[in-house]
Amino acid sequence: MSIFKQGLAALAAGAFSIALAQPAAAEPVKFDFWFGLSGDLARVVDTLCKNFNASQADYEVVCTSQGNYDATLQNTIAAFRAGKQPAVVQVYDVGTATMMLSGAYKPADKLMEENGYKIDYADYFPGIARYYATSKGEMLSFPFNSSTPLMYWNKDAFAKIGKTEAPKTWEDVGADLKALKDAGYECPMAINISANESWQLMEQFSALHNQPIATKNNGYDGLDARLEVNKTKFVQYVTDLKKWYDAGLIKIKSKDLGQDMVQSFATGTCQVIMTSVGDHGTVGKTQKEGMNWDVAELPVYAGTERKNSLVGGASLWVLSGKSDAEYKGAAAFLNFIHDPKTALFWSTNTGYIPVTKSGFEYMKSTGFYDKAPYKGRETAIASLTASEPTEITRGIRLGNFTQIRAEFGTQMQAIFANKVSVQEGLDTLVKNGDAILERFQQTYPGKTLP
Amino acid sequence: MVERTPFLNFFTHVILFAGFVFCIAPFVIVTIAASHNLKDVNDVPMSLLPGNDFWVNIKTAWVTANLGPKLLNSFIMATGVAAGKVIISALTAFSIVYFRYPGRTFIFWLIFVTLMLPLEVRIVPTYAVVANVLEPFQTIMDLTGLSWLVEKVSGVHVALNLGMLNSYPGLILPLIATATGTFLYRQFFLTVPDELTEAARMDGAGPLRFFIDILLPLSRNNMAALGTIMFLWAWNQYLWPLLITTDQSHATAVTELKQLIPNVGGAPEWHIAMAGTLIIMLPPLVVVVLMQRWFVRGLIATEK
Amino acid sequence: MEKRVTFSRWTIGILFAVPQLLLIFTFFYWPAGQAVYWSLTLQQPWGGGNIWVGLDNFRSILSNADYWNSISASLIFAGISTGLAMFIALVLAALTDRQLAGSRFYRVVLIWPYGIAAPALALAFRFILAPEAGFMAVVNQVWPGFWDPGLDGADAMASIIVAFSWKYVGYNFIFFLAAFQAIPRSLIEAAAMDGSGVIRRFWDIQFPLITPTIFFLLVINITESFQDSFGIVDIMTSGGPANATNLMVYKIYSDGFKGLDYSGAAAQSIILMLLIIVLTIFQFRFIERRVHYR
User: Fold this and answer.
1) Which of A81, A256, A414 sits opposite C242 (nearest CB)?
2) Phi, then psi, of C164 in degrees rounded to 5
3) Which residues span the domain enclosing A77?
4) Domain enclosing residue B26, as ranges
5) Does A298 map to a domain?
6) Which residues of C touch chain A, with CB atoms under 8 Å apart?
7) C134/B contact by beta carbon, under 8 A
8) Count of domains observed in chain A
9) In sequence order, which residues have a C-beta less than 8 Å from that of residue B45 and are 6 or more positions away?
10) pLDDT value at position B2?
11) SS3 for chain B, per residue?
């Protein structure tokens, strides 16, 4: 710090009025929280922030939606480079590796310890904790909104073909879709094949079947991990989906075409979809009057020993370079989020699941899962805790995974448009994905994941 | 011309009318779609008879996308760019045309080259510069040892930092940093009779007086043309504001269009999206219609 | 061309140029130089370090099939949309120049599209061309699966070409009409006296006289198709499906800002800059007459 610098800062403030007003002594310490949810979910976050601000007088969190996860990470990096980063930021699951190597964060567990909060990290569901923890089990960020995908199925339609239960294996799914088609349903099942559907189609499928996405235990054991989805059971899965698509059993629904997948299910156009439990609320709110539907765990191929599904969603990172006062506020905020009562509020108003065992128990004890609109959401917990996480079903720890997802979308589109065969498409996915991983590794020479 | 070409005339009218329909149809469809309700707008085929919900949709779009402040931001940015361009280009052209100094040709070419590379292709580093506008100067001082010198002499450590992300200058200045207007003025200044300059000098007027009292009033037409074209150009900018406004309080109307695309999980609310599109496309359209003469003139003069 | 009478205090003269020079140094030359530096290094996205890699970035880009796909998509887009926009505008301008009844009206209306922001017209066309709502849905009802820009790359490419051409018909129209009107009436009237018909006169007199404009517009349209396409692609297709509309500027944006690969994006910028410089030089060498005053 220098007089010169201060002088310039003053000049800057005067000329462009970009400096923030200094809070007066009596006022609460303000700190920024950027998140990537929009629409209804953003409104719930805003309420959450208000509740936090009302719960104490020392700190005030300023919550800003950045529209979506990609933009949040992108804008945070931009702001960080310009020295204007928020104190707390929501980063999606697959950004974890990128964050870990950024050198731009303050470890969440250290922050809590320094500020005198005791968090029982064993209380987190292991499937959730291990996605975000280091190899030594330290929590660098706090799980926030967590979800896992489920199969949504239309009970009325299935009743027509004499079924009262959702199919449990992909073999059954094939037969049921055929029956639905024969019963006159135009769109037995809807899928989407855009970049983000990598989560449902590739990542969750691989976890449930205990199939690796990349070597080195999905990247947990080193930056030299490379993709291998072109030689796992995933190939057969894509082949089947494509076969069903060609037979008219599956339709592609995306907002690029008009109606998106969730909407197509809620309006009764399509009878089966796979999507996040986070959409449970949306379907309930927008469903066609009187439609009977339910959720089930995602199917697996016959003879597979089902493993836990992966957590999706995002965690909260505390960024470096902020003042102690802001860190105190950030710690208080994370502690507030961690509270079971907050978990109840959060899950009630969104479709997200509680991230801790105590939160889940607390919600069960209030009878949350017995009542009509929320009934079924416990299936997500069952899916997440179907097994102890294996080396492979802990999660995915790959650099620049956003770009790999984009590549996934590209290749799936090429496959479904008959531009390439399934194997060719997946081979290209692996080839291009590996180039991305190699580049990431080169960018951080000599660094290892914590 | 007194020529009888009935068949060709008929043909001319038909083609021109088709061209007219081609140009106007999107406007009409957008307006009609903006007047429907959710069900009607998704009807196949959509009815071409306007619905009753026009003002409701306009209001919804206005509120959801928070268009009031966004339009204001667009207006500030476009006006800033237009004004900045009109003034700075005039100054530069004056310098190049009315003075002889060493390196003048070099400066001329320095400015001319900027015509070639639009902002879009150098977007990544420009973004980095705007994050800290003084970074170039800091680097130069560091490299030349100047900051070391200053630190030794005065004990002051030089750390220049001026971030312009999420600010009006950050939106405006990089868009001004091209040569578009300079050559328009240069061309015009060259046509100003030398007698005027001589007379002014005889009266004892310095360069500044001459510039303000004589040259600028003569350039009014050029200013109007350049201003119109720059206003439109800046209003329609998309990539640049999209990148540097992470804070909604500085976002512009055009970048807000993306928020209007029907959302994942939401209903296909095309009527709202079209109402928003209509609001956002209206201001430049009004400028084109009202300022047609300057628009055409500016376009031909700046880009020729 | 030079001024005979000038002011003698040239130090003041330089001062007049200083604001412009400062701006272009800070926002043009420095970033352009940075782009070169970044393209030769690997930048960590969060800042805090970079490694010198020489020409590796260029090598990896040029050996990447996706990049060549992006170049060919850009060229296809530039070629077709430029051809379409210029042809339609040329016909409309030539006919408007005949000055039949109503030509004043057309002169006003036909330039409106150019005033619209590319993303705004893109959203309009996205609705008009949406396969499940809007107008192409009608076609899809008659021939199911005919129009599918979400999956069929050619359909998506067609969508962005239509949107871009629509805007640039207005732009080209302005220039063509100006060029036609600059042709002396007497020339055409003299030809008419000699008994040559309207179409004959067009080919013999008008068309040769507007060829410089055609060349000029060709270059401008191609350059604009590289730049102004960003908003259209971003709103309509996001570069998909299967990279079919991943044009060069969009790829720079998505690799750099979405993929956090600043170095790769910088290298792509350099290549695009070179491409545009070549085009501009072409413009100078072949169409010098149009830029005489520079």
Assistant:
1) A414
2) -65, -45
3) 22-147+312-370
4) 20-115+178-303
5) yes
6) 42-48, 51, 53, 60, 64, 66, 130-133, 137, 148-153, 237, 240-243, 254-255, 257-261, 264
7) yes
8) 2
9) C135, C137, C138
10) 53
11) CCCCCHHHHHHHHHHHHHHHHHHHHHHHHHHHHCCCCHHHHCCCCCCCCCCCCHHHHHHHHHHHCCHHHHHHHHHHHHHHHHHHHHHHHHHHHHHHHHECCCCHHHHHHHHHHCCCCCHHHHHHHHHHHHHCCCHHHHHHHHHHCHHHHHHHHHCCCCCCCCCCCCCHHHHHHHHHCCCHHHHHHHHHHHHCCHHHHHHHHHCCCCHHHHHHHHHHHHCHHHHHHHHHHHHHHHHCCCHHHHHHCCCHHHCCHHHHHHHHCCCCCCCCCHHHHHHHHHHHHHHHHHHHHHCHHHHHHHHHHHHC
Tens of pLDDT along A122-180? 888 888 888 888 888 889 999 998 899 999 999 999 999 999 999 999 999 999 999 99
**What value does the mean pLDDT take over residues C43-52?**
83
Nearest chain C residue (CA) to B19 = C92
* Domain membership flag for residue A338: yes
Is residue B129 in a domain?
A: no
Find the CB nearest B95 among C16, C169, C277.
C16
Q: Which residue has the tokens 């800042």?
A: C47
Q: How do residues C216-237 score in pLDDT, each as one tens digit?
A: 888 888 888 888 889 899 889 8
The answer as to whether A286 is a domain residue is yes
For helices C153-182 and C229-236, angle between their N-to-C axes, nearest 10 degrees:
150
The number of distinct structural domains making up chain B is 1
Compute the average pLDDT of residues B131-147: 81
Q: Which residues of A touch C (CB under 8 A)?
A: 70, 73-74, 77, 80-81, 98, 102-104, 194, 252, 254, 256-259, 400, 402-403, 406, 409-411, 413-414, 416-417, 419, 432, 435-436, 439, 442-445
Average pLDDT over residues B266-287: 85
Q: What is the CATH number of the domain that holds B210?
A: 1.10.3720.10
- Asked if residue B154 is part of any domain, the answer here is no
- Both A190 and A94 in a single domain? no
**Domain membership flag for residue B237:** yes
Place of tokens 């401008």: C220
Averaged pLDDT for residues C131-159: 84
pLDDT at C12 over 50: yes
CB–CB contact C28 B177 (8 Å): yes
- Mean pLDDT of the region A340-363: 87
pLDDT band at A26 (very low <50, low <70, confident <90, very high): low
- The overall average pLDDT reported for chain A is 88
Instruction: Look at residue B54 and tell me if it is in a domain.
Output: yes
Q: What is the CATH number of the domain that holds A137?
A: 3.40.190.10
Mean of all residue pLDDT scores within chain C: 86
Domains of chain C: 64-291 (1.10.3720.10)
CB contact under 8 A, B15 and C273: no
User: Where is the domain boundary, A353, A370, A387?
Assistant: A370
The verdict on A141 and A220 lying in the same domain is no
Same domain for A303 and A316, yes or no, is: no
Q: Both A284 and A346 in a single domain?
A: no
Between A244 and B158, the higher pLDDT residue? A244
Instruction: Give mean pLDDT, residues C231-246.
Output: 89
- Point out the domain boundary residue: A333, A353, A370: A370
Rounded-to-integer distance, Cα C288 and Cα A74, Å = 44
**Which residues of chain C have a CB within 8 Å of the CB of B23?**
109-110, 112-113, 166, 169-170
- Cβ contacts (< 8 Å) between B163 and chain C: which residues? none
Residue A14 covered by a domain: no
Q: Do B239 and C231 touch (CB under 8 A)?
A: yes
Residues A159 and A114 both lie in one domain = no
- Which among A102, A403, A406 has the least Cβ separation from residue C46? A102
Contact yes or no for A16 and B267 at CB 8 A: no
What pLDDT score does C76 carry? 95
In the predicted structure, residue A10 carries a pLDDT above the cut 60: no
For A81, the closest of B131, B157, B265 (CB atoms) is: B131
